[in-house]
Amino acid sequence: MTHPTDLLSAFLDGELESADHAMVANHLDGCASCAVDLEGISRVRDWVRGLPVQDPPIPLLPALRAPRWAWAAASVAAAALAVGLVVTPAEPEAFDLDTLAGQHTARVVVSPGISSIRGPVSGP
Amino acid sequence: MGRRAAILMLTALVVMPAAAQADEGLEDYLESAMDAEFHGSGVVMCSWGPDSAATTYEVTRSDGMSMVQGPDGGLMLYGSLTASASGADWYALEVSEWSAWSLSDRYSLGETTPITRLGRSASEVTVLEDGRARARLVIDDESTVPLLTEVFDADGRVFRLAALVEFVAAPAVDMEMPDFMEHEMLMAGEPSSQLPDSVFGYRRSDTYALDGSGSQTFYSDGLFSFSVFEVGAAPGEFADGSMFEVDGAAYTRIVTPSNVWVHWSSSDQSFVLVGDLPPDHIETVLSELPRPGRRGVIMRWLSRVFG
Asked: Is B307 helix (H, G, I), strand (E, B) or coil?
């Protein structure tokens, strides 16, 4: 039996397409192991969401007083950092089609093939 | 290969029974036609479903050097060096190393018929893929240059057509490479762990590191070829691409005269495939490469928690 382990989180979020949702639901009906996994994912998620909203511990300078939501976000971020969950992806490198076309053409033309025998065409 | 040898080879293609040494004949032809010297101008067009594109181009090949001029700019080729023009400036890109070429045994030469094209003696050759017509070439007998190439899709429709409308064999021209503003090397990189060594008969030939981040993996079956780029973000041009599905997964494509481009994202990785392979090959290849994926569990949680 193949367990849809990697789909459980999306199932819980309601992000699966209907066919996948039905497949996971059917599987959960007959698979105690996956049902336990699903419950575990749900419990951990509830725990993260249930982290207390913190008030500022002491009155700070009025100019530095942040709104409550900011402290809540900072608390959650600190908790997430503590368990190593925060990932800060680097800004992805952006390439344009011209650059990639140049790279591809440079390789195509050194070997025989249908494009190289008729002459490559410039541009993407 | 000299012209006499090329003529003998082509003559052999015409008179020999197709089944005898068909694969070897096609292999020899593809290798020799790369070096054929000619000048020509023509049109190349590509059509996949409702998407199509066409352009004109002019090509001159002499003394091992080629110059291709199209509406989008010019290319100069010499050995492993490709120079492209941007305005008045030229930029060179040189391939540092590449794997030996080989032709897949699924291709063979079919029927060959003598015809006349552009007032010249030529041969019409069918390239078969597992016994079905995949391409039709009209080859100039003297120079071995393809005056016409048609590539068919799985239903036998023309997917790409390149036709010369003006042709001169062995032109007497002097060409020299321009001065380059920049000269970059395409350096070999580590093979991607996400991409297979072979996919639907296409062999992973080489991997190159992209300037910045990312990689280019080059696949070829000897007749068609494609590169898979692993990049952080999709090129902006795909915003205007067409959506299509393979086995229920969504991809975006752009059709240009000489290539088809496909973009998809798997988890936090973007892939761009570009090549001259026909649509049915592309769809099978895509089904065997990393699929468009959902976000990972951690990214999903972070998204839910932080918005």
From this structure: coil
Total domains present in chain B:
2
> Shortest CB distance from B73 goes to which of A15, A89, A122?
A122
Buried b (16+ CB within 10 A) or exposed e, A32-59: eebeebbeebeeebeeeeeeeeeeeeee
Q: How far apart are CA B155 and CA A12, in angstroms?
A: 43
Q: Report yes or no: A122 at the B interface, CB cutoff 8 Å.
A: yes
Range of the structural domain that residue B239 is part of: 188-288
Last residue of a domain, one of B134, B169, B204: B169
Count of domains observed in chain A: 1
The chain B residue lying nearest A118, using CA atoms, is B146
Range of the domain at A10: 1-54+74-87
CB contact under 8 A, B261 and A13: no
Residues B64 and B160 in one domain: yes
Distance CA B77, CA A116 (A): 11
**B214 shares a domain with B272:** yes
Q: Is residue B276 part of a domain?
A: yes
Query: Does any domain span residue A107?
Result: no
Residues 10 through 39 of chain A touching chain B, CB cutoff 8 Å: 10, 13, 15
Helix B22-33 to helix B3-15 angle, to the nearest 10 degrees? Answer: 150
Whether residue B215 is found in the same domain as residue B127: no
Residues B52 and B115 in one domain: yes
Instruction: Tell whether B239 is within 8 A of chain A (Cβ).
Output: no
- Give the per-residue pLDDT at B95: 95
Is B298–A89 a contact, with Cβ atoms under 8 angstroms apart? no
What is the pLDDT averaged over residues B27-51? 95
Rounded to an integer, the average pLDDT of A75-85 is 60
β-pairing, B132-140 with B120-129? antiparallel
Q: What is the pLDDT of residues B131-186, one digit of tens each?
A: 999 999 999 999 999 999 999 999 999 999 999 999 999 988 888 888 889 999 99
Q: What per-residue confidence (pLDDT) applies to B304? A: 53
- The verdict on B24 and B84 lying in the same domain is yes
- Both tokens of B127, joined, read 């390239």
Co-location of B116 and B227 in the same domain: no
Under an 8 A CB cutoff, do A110 and B227 touch?
no
Give the per-residue pLDDT at A80: 59
Nearest chain A Cα distance for residue B288, angstroms: 19
